[in-house]
Design brief:
With about 475 residues, the chain is of the alpha+beta class. It folds into three domains: about 290 residues, no CATH class; about 100 residues, no CATH class; about 55 residues, no CATH class. Helix content is about 20%, strand content about 25%. It contains nine helices and 18 strands. The strands form five sheets. Strands 5, 7, 8, 9, 10, 13 and 14 form a seven-stranded mixed beta sheet that branches. A five-stranded antiparallel beta sheet has the order 1-11-12-6-4.
């Protein structure tokens, strides 16, 4: 979907809209604006020409990335989770960031700006693991100067020797710091996305934030173009092209591919070079671990050791046949996770009862229908002569936790008071109706009765024969 096809009414309804890209009006770089005015020839005045030239620079991220530009990472940094089937991705607060530069060489014909319908981003996510390297370790990020990003005998990078100064934008310097990572060139060409893949690994999202919890206040990407929609924010995202391995620490690098299109994986003949290493600018990096399936939530449940949830009955060696019928039901209850615990009844008596918590070492059959009274939550075991108070304890615990909540306790008190008042009113009504034989009328009915009485009195007062003020006839 292109940016012109976005329906803002869908976004405001809470729908996340995925857009192919939002291209910047101008890519980052130096520009020269020339204006020429030529007057038409006049009979008196000679033809005049006016020319002026202005230079300006469009600044953009290049060797460093402002942390405020990063909205979210996935998987989260230093996390451990079920990520084996997830592609890492990063979300930016600026919707044009992935397309503000180009992967083509500046003097290449492909670097000339086209209509932008099918443009590859200049950023990519590379997932690295220890097994990718001969020494068994992912190279560490090193801080270098911009002047170190020049091709050498065995390293390829962003700039050719002797052309670095001319390649810098306004405000950039050779001594500017940047974070870099050196990886084997053959590995880079094995794991990096192709130019065609890059076009599918970047997109923008128009998101309605009204129903979304967030701790950031990123700028609305459309605000600069006059297309801002209230409550809608625009994000850009870069996705990786490689799944992490199980049980292995994975490191993700957001790298710049500016001007490196010739070193990306290509079908057919690769660009010949004698270099063995490529030096990349790492704008952001983080690590995570995709744990084994046995360590997932489902795996934990399937491989759960229930031995700690139960006690095994160990009959005394002095047991005889007389207590065998007693040991068997006790053993079964212990195998089901029950414990014999001291119990003080409501009457104050001290006894022993069976209890089991919410975690059971075996499937538990539900109680249907569920008791509606606390008295029905005690179950008597005839074989052992003891009560099972598991549900009774759970009910009491839930009741105490509920009453501990101030809002719930207030609402419960109001509910009881209103029902009590309603019951009292109904009782009074029934008593009066039964004892006096009267039917209590509603307020509206009483007002109607009063109005009718007033009308009747008016009629009586104005009637010549019914009025008390009329003189009697002889």
């Amino acid at each position: 979907m292109s940016s012109t096809e976005v329906k803002q009414e869908d976004i405001t309804q809470g729908i996340v809209t995925f857009v192919q890209h939002y291209l910047p009006p101008l890519e980052a770089g130096d520009y020269t604006l020339k204006v020429r005015l030529v007057e038409e020839k006049h009979d008196i005045f000679p033809r005049q020409k006016y020319e002026t030239e202005k230079r300006f620079t469009v600044r953009g991220e290049r060797f460093q990335l402002n942390p405020a530009e990063v909205y979210a990472l996935f998987p989260p940094e230093n996390s451990l989770g079920e990520y084996s089937n997830c592609l890492p991705h990063i979300v930016f607060t600026r919707r044009t960031l992935p397309w503000e530069r180009t992967i083509e060489v500046s003097n290449s014909p492909k670097a000339v700006k086209t209509d932008g319908k099918d443009k590859a981003p200049w950023l990519a996510l590379l997932l690295l693991e220890d097994d990718d390297f001969q020494d068994g370790k992912v190279p560490k990020v090193e801080q270098r100067k911009v002047q170190d990003l020049v091709d050498s005998s065995n390293i390829v990078s962003y700039f050719k020797p002797g052309k670095l100064q001319d390649s810098l934008d306004y405000g950039e310097d050779l001594d500017d710091n940047c974070l870099t990572i050196d990886i084997p060139l053959d590995l880079f060409q094995a794991i990096a996305p192709t130019e065609e893949d890059l076009k599918y690994l970047a997109h923008t999202r128009d998101v309605s934030m009204d129903r979304k919890e967030h701790n950031h206040n990123p700028p609305v990407g459309a605000a600069n173009s006059g297309e801002a929609t209230p409550g809608v924010q625009n994000f850009s995202a870069i996705m990786g092209n490689r799944f992490p391995q199980l049980g292995v620490k994975s490191t993700v690098h957001l790298v710049s591919l500016e001007g490196l299109s010739e070193y990306l994986p290509q079908e057919g003949t690769q660009t010949p070079t004698t270099s063995t290493t490529i030096r990349l600018v790492s704008l952001k990096s983080w690590s995570f671990t995709a744990r084994d399936e046995k360590e997932s939530f489902q795996g934990f449940l399937e491989h759960l050791d229930t031995g700690t949830l139960k006690f095994t009955a160990d009959p005394s060696p002095h047991s005889n046949s007389q207590n065998t019928t007693f040991v068997t039901p006790v053993s079964s209850l212990l195998e089901e996770g029950y414990l014999a615990v001291p119990h003080q009844t409501r009457e104050g008596q001290q006894t022993i009862s069976w209890y089991r918590g919410s975690f059971a070492p075996c499937p538990v059959k539900p109680i249907l229908p569920f008791p509606s009274s606390i008295v029905e939550l005690s179950f008597f075991h005839q074989n052992t002569g003891l009560y099972n108070i598991s549900y009774l304890a759970a009910w009491e615990l839930g009741r105490l936790l509920a009453l501990q909540n101030k809002h719930f306790a207030t609402a419960l008190c109001n509910w009881k008071r209103s029902h009590k008042q309603t019951a009292v009113q109904q009782l009074e009504k029934s008593i009066v109706t039964h004892q006096l034989g009267l039917t209590l009328r509603s307020r509206k009915q009483k007002l109607q009765d009063i109005n009718l009485t007033k009308e009747a009195l008016k009629i009586i007062a104005n009637h010549p024969y019914l009025s008390s003020n009329q003189k009697s006839t002889p």
